């Protein structure tokens, strides 16, 4: 590259893709070397390459809800420790209030990249560790009332100081978690990824030169901003409002309200959470970096072009989140299970954008992952099982809601049954889709996912973060709501129904079964306009019952051997009767 010449589109594209490749390589290293299922199999982690100012240049293809979180964390690190950082350092931190983190299980491991004695970039990772201590196994405590109860708090610390490991920090970390082998293994996977990030970044410097790369990095931020502004400018100006809820905490929950106003003015977008409920005495408060990440991820998902995952994308976006609310809590508010709040913020923003972009936004989905955390002692050793159960989407303007997919805010996956049973005293009894659970519509919502897990040790405890029972996924443009979620212990005997958000862990014994059913996706469009051929297909695949087809879609069907046939005259009559009744 010519140091004096402007950055060409060809050069920008080459460097942008090189950075994307490095960030993806970091993600693959963590996937291949992590010890715990929540990181290795569920992929609850993210990686990024940042410039010397701590601004994200590229992010690995992992968790979108982490996208906006790196900036605040890195600005805090650079501001407080940039002057004392040395080659070979590795930082570790997690605390929302002391280090601009997200919640205690999400641990950042970050390595500076030096060129000729100056910081030129950062290799950064964040991973949801299997356990970080606290009052419940897995550290996703709903019942915590303050962060001190949630686990080990880490301000920005040097895990490695100029190439020498700080053994005291490793020892403190191991002593405060229930499964130190998995936690230490995951952190070492993050360290290894950062080392490779440094190596590949330096190779880029050797190839192009430091000064040309600095100019190219600035151009990448500007390019991301210009693409985002062009897309936002195509959205009609206006203030688009939407309200949604989390069911609430415990056995007798009070709904938690989310109220958003998405205002578009030219190429600028403001996301305003004024009117949202105050912070709660429970572990679902979302620190401000996570609230920013939710806004960025939602807005990016509706863009029609491939915008780089660079900090420049966020420049047109302004966030208003009143202090002391569930979307911007003040210390010492608990936030260990804040993920559900991030998902609900995204769902709320999408509801607002559906007004601005009719025909482009799908109906509401299952509301993000359910996280069951089961822990206890087996064969003299502690075990902790944590997973993110995904998921289904709402019906879209062109097709039925997808099943077996992650929420758009979390590019994660359900842990394979074989891995669960190999590593824990648990057995997965059932795993599949539940018929007649997708919200009726011209395009049906995706079906609910069911998971049943049996305990095979003498004693264990379970905590669950779930939602969307009292407020199931909404439909759009005449589509109906999806089915509500369920939490049940021993469904075939005791049938003990549990709340969506446990305040206290529930004891389980050998042979007990936990059943979870995610919410079904909302429907899109009038169900009475659904193509009967699609209903026949659903019947053949077992996704709806004959009674469900009649009740929800106004379709009369009969089985002819192994095939389903639609009674067209009866269907037309039934639908006409329904329309007349609705008009009356």
Quick structural summary:
By secondary structure, the protein is of the alpha+beta class. It has helices at residues 9-33, 37-40, 69-81, 96-99, 167-175, 180-208, 210-233, 288-301, 339-356, 417-423, 532-541, 546-553, 568-583; strands at 45-51, 56-59, 90-93, 106-115, 118-128, 157-161, 164-165, 238-246, 256-265, 268-272, 317-320, 371-378, 381-386, 391-392, 403-405, 426-434, 448-455, 459-465, 486-489, 496-497, 506-509, 513-517, 557-560, 563-566.
Q: Sketch the major β-sheet.
A: 7 strands, antiparallel
The rounded Rg comes to: 25 Å
Mean pLDDT, rounded to whole units?
95
Spatial strand order of the main sheet: 2-1-5-4-3-6-7
* Beta strand count: 24
β content, as a range?
15-25%
Q: In terms of structural class, how would the helical and strand content be classed?
A: alpha+beta
Could you name the ranges where pLDDT drops below 50 across 5 or more consecutive residues?
A: none
Global outline: globular
Binned, the helix content reads: 25-40%
Distance between the termini: 73 Å
Number of helices: 13
Give the tally of structural domains: 3
């Amino acid at each position: 590259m010519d140091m004096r010449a402007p950055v060409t589109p060809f050069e920008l594209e080459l460097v942008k893709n090189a950075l994307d490749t490095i960030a993806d390589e970091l993600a693959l290293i963590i996937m291949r070397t992590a010890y715990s299922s929540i990181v290795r199999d569920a992929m609850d982690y993210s990686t990024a390459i940042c410039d010397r100012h701590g601004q994200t240049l590229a992010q690995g293809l992992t968790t979108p809800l982490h996208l906006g979180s790196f900036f605040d964390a890195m600005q805090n690190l650079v501001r407080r420790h940039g002057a004392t950082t040395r080659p070979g350092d590795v930082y570790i931190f997690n605390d929302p209030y002391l280090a601009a983190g997200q919640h205690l299980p999400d641990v950042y491991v970050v390595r500076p990249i030096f060129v000729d004695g100056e910081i030129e970039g950062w290799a950064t990772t964040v991973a949801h560790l299997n356990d970080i201590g606290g009052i419940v196994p897995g550290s996703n405590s709903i019942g915590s009332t303050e962060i001190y109860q949630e686990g080990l708090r880490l301000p920005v610390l040097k895990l490695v100081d100029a190439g020498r490991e700080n053994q005291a920090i490793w020892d403190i970390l191991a002593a405060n978690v229930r499964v130190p082998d998995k936690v230490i293994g995951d952190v070492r996977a993050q360290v290894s990824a950062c080392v490779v990030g440094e190596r590949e970044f330096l190779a880029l410097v050797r190839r192009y030169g430091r000064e040309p790369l600095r100019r190219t990095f600035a151009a990448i931020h500007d390019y991301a901003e210009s693409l985002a502004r062009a897309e936002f400018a195509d959205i009609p100006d206006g203030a688009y409002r939407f309200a949604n809820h989390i069911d609430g905490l415990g056995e007798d929950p009070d709904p938690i309200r989310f109220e958003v106003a998405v205002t578009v003015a030219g190429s600028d977008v403001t996301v305003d959470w004024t009117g949202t409920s105050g912070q709660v005495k429970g572990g679902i408060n979302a620190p401000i970096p996570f609230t920013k990440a939710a806004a960025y991820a939602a807005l990016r998902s509706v863009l029609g072009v491939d915008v780089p995952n660079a900090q420049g994308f966020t420049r047109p976006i302004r966030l208003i989140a009143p202090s002391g609310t569930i979307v911007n809590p003040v210390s010492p508010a608990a936030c260990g299970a804040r993920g559900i709040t991030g998902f609900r913020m995204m769902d709320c923003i999408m509801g607002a954008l559906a007004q601005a972009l009719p025909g482009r936004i799908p109906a509401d989905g299952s509301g993000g992952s359910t996280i069951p955390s089961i822990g206890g002692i087996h064969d003299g050793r502690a075990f902790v099982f944590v997973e993110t159960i995904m998921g289904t989407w709402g019906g879209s303007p062109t097709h039925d809601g997808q099943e077996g997919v992650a929420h758009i805010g979390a590019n994660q996956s359900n842990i394979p049954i074989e891995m669960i049973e190999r590593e824990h005293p648990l057995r997965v009894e059932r795993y599949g889709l539940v018929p007649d659970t997708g919200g009726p519509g011209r395009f049906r919502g995706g079906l609910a996912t069911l998971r049943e897990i049996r305990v095979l040790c003498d004693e264990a405890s379970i905590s669950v973060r779930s939602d969307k029972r009292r407020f199931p996924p909404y439909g759009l443009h005449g589509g109906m709501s999806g089915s509500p979620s369920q939490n049940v212990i021993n469904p075939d005997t005791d049938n003990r129904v549990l709340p969506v958000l446990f305040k206290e862990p529930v004891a389980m014994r050998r042979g007990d079964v936990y059943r979870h059913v995610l919410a079904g996706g909302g429907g899109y469009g009038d169900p009475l306009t659904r193509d009967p051929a699609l209903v026949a297909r659903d019947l053949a695949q077992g996704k709806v019952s004959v009674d469900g087809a009649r009740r929800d879609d106004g379709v009369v069907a009969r089985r002819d051997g192994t095939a389903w046939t639609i009674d067209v005259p009866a269907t037309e009559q039934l639908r006409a009767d329904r329309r007349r009744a609705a008009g009356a």
